[in-house]
Here is the input.
Amino acid sequence: MSEADYVEVHNQLYNRAPARSLADDVPLLPQPSWQEVVESQDGMAYLTDRRWGVRMFSPAFASAFPGGEPPENLMEWMILDESVRDTMLIDWEREWAPFALTQFRSNRLAFADDAELNRLHERFLDDKDVRRIYEDPSSACVSMPGVGIRPMRHAIHGVGHVRLFMAQPETAPGARFVTVRFRKSNGVWA
Here is the structure.
């Protein structure tokens, strides 16, 4: 049974995705054809592997970052880069960290033997601000894609809010294709 078959059967039987992957050698990346999907987006879009390594991104996504280059690992950047806390990721402690850490916790459980996810986990525990949020059960943030709107400072458009829409390529469990809608402070979606 392939990983995609296993996920589909588990979803049908239990009405939810499995907590762990079927095999240790689950592909890290989806098919290269996903590059076409990412590049065809007019707005901000990116694809990460299960470790939140940024593998593909649209020019609009790159433009959100000072210098026009996204970080290599989006999770590590969101959680551990203190320079973006409350500058780019506005209200980091309430809006961004709980959201990201909940996703991280879920992926780490699904890929418990992944050395990179375990390395990130240890780094999160070493940061007292992150650890406090990460270990607080009340900070778990279950968010429906496209519903939650988070404040952000875009490198070009300034302060506004983003709405994230996520999908998972079925051939690379844990990978994420994300489109990001940015609403400027004047209410216009960029």
